Amino acid sequence: MPIAVYVLGLAVFAQGTSEFMLSGLVSGIAADLDVPLSAAGLLTSAFAVGMVVGAPLMALSSRTWPRRRALLLFLAVFVAVHVVGALTPSYGVLLATRFVGALANAGFWAVALTTAVSMVPDRLKGRAAAVVVGGVTIACVVGVPAGAVLGERWGWRSAFWAVAIVSLPAVLAVLRSIPGGRGTDTGAAPVPVRDELRALTGPRLRPVLLTMALVQGATFCTFSYLEPLLTRETGLGAGWVPVSLALFGAGSFAGVTVAGRFADARPVAVVAAGMTALALGWAALALAAGRPALALALIPLLGMLAFGTGTALITRVLGLASGAPTLAGAFSTTAFNLGATVGPWAGGLALDAGFGYRAPVWVSALLMVLALLVAATTAKGRRSRAGERRPSAVQRSARRRL
C-alpha cells in the first residue's frame, strides 16, 4: 500500500475528530451558549449538511486542480474555521463554522477517496478505501474521547483548538507525500461530467446510495446523543463518556479492518449480514440502556457493525461507479453524510417529543429496518428483471429446434 494512502487516512483522522467529537460535548455547548440540547445536536447536522452539499460541489470545482493543491486548500480552510469556532460566543456563528468546515471536509473526502483507490490495483481498492475510512475510526478511538476529556476539564472550546492543532501535521504530510498531478494522473482526458452523472444515477447505484444514507443515519442518530443516553438513562458518570466513545471507536476500527479485507470479494454478503445485525443491535441497545454492563458491551459491537457495513457500502459504490472517477467519492460522501444529517435531526425530534433518552436508539433501529426493506426490494426487482430476460424452457426448446 503506498504511503500516500496512509497520509490521507491521517488527515481524515483530524477531520473525523471534529465531525464526531460533538457527541461528547453537546451538554457543555448547550449550557455555555444557552441553547436547547437538540439545538446543540443540530451542530452535527449542520456539519453533515455541509458534507452533503459540499461533496459533489467541491469535487466538481476541483476536478481540474492538482490534487495536492486541492487537498491542501481544503485542509487550510478546515483549520481556519475551527479557530473561529473556538473563539466565537455566538451559536449562529458556531453553526456557520460547522457548515463551512464541512464543505472543506467534504472536498477533502471526495478527492481523498478517489485518489486513494486510483493509486492501487483493483484487488486492493477495498483496503485503500478502508485505510481512508479508518482515519475516522481512529478518531473515534483516540480523538473523540480526547475531545470529551478536554471538554470536561477545560470546556468544549479546548476541543476545537485541539482539532486545529492536530490538523497541522496532516497539512505537512499531504504536502510531502501526495503527488501534485491532476485527476488520477493517468494521462487520459477527464470523463465528461454528464457521463459521470449518468453512471451515478443509474438503477444499480441509486438503491445502494439510499441504503448507505439510511445505515449512516441510524449510526449518527444514536451516536449524536450517546452522552445524554449514558449519563441520564444508563446512570453512568461523566467520566464514562470518553471510555464509551473509545469503545465505540475501537469497534469501528475493527469493523473497517475486517470489511476492508472481505468487501472486495463479497460486498453484498458483508452488507446484508451487517445491516441485519445492526437492526437487531440498535433495538438491543434501546432495551438494555438501563443496564450499564450490557450497554457498554453493546457499544463496541455496534461500532464494528456500523463502520464495517459502511465501508463495504463505500467499496460497493466505488466498484459500481467505475465510469465516474471524479464524482464516485463525492456521491459516497454525500450519501454517508445525508444519513448523518437526517439521523441527529430525527433523534432530536424524538427527544423534543418527550419520548425519553432511549428514543434516538429506537429511531436508529427503525432506520435500519427501512434500509433492509430497500435492499430486499432492490434484490427482488433485480431477480424479477433477470427472470424476464432468461428464456423459458419452451423458448429454449424452440431455439434448439431452429
Tally the helices.
Answer: 16
- Give the overall average pLDDT: 82
Give the overall silhouette. globular
Instruction: Evaluate the radius of gyration.
Output: 21 Å
Biggest sheet layout: none
How widely separated are the two ends? 55 Å
Judged by helices, strands and strand pairing, the structural class is mainly alpha
- Approximately how much beta-strand content do the residues carry? under 5%
Helix content: over 70%
Tell me how many strands there are: 0
The helix/strand series, from N terminus to C terminus, equals: HHHHHHHHHHHHHHHH
Low-confidence stretches: 182-188
Written description of the protein model:
This protein is mainly α. Helix content is 81%, strand content 0%. It is globular and about 55 Å long. The termini are far apart.
Outline the fold blueprint:
Elements: H1 3-21, H2 26-33, H3 37-61, H4 67-87, H5 91-118, H6 125-154, H7 156-177, H8 193-200, H9 206-223, H10 226-234, H11 240-262, H12 267-288, H13 292-320, H14 328-352, H15 359-389, H16 393-401
Helix pairs in contact: 1-5, 1-6, 1-7, 2-3, 3-5, 3-14, 4-5, 4-7, 5-6, 5-14, 6-7, 6-11, 6-13, 9-13, 9-14, 9-15, 11-13, 12-13, 12-15, 13-14, 14-15
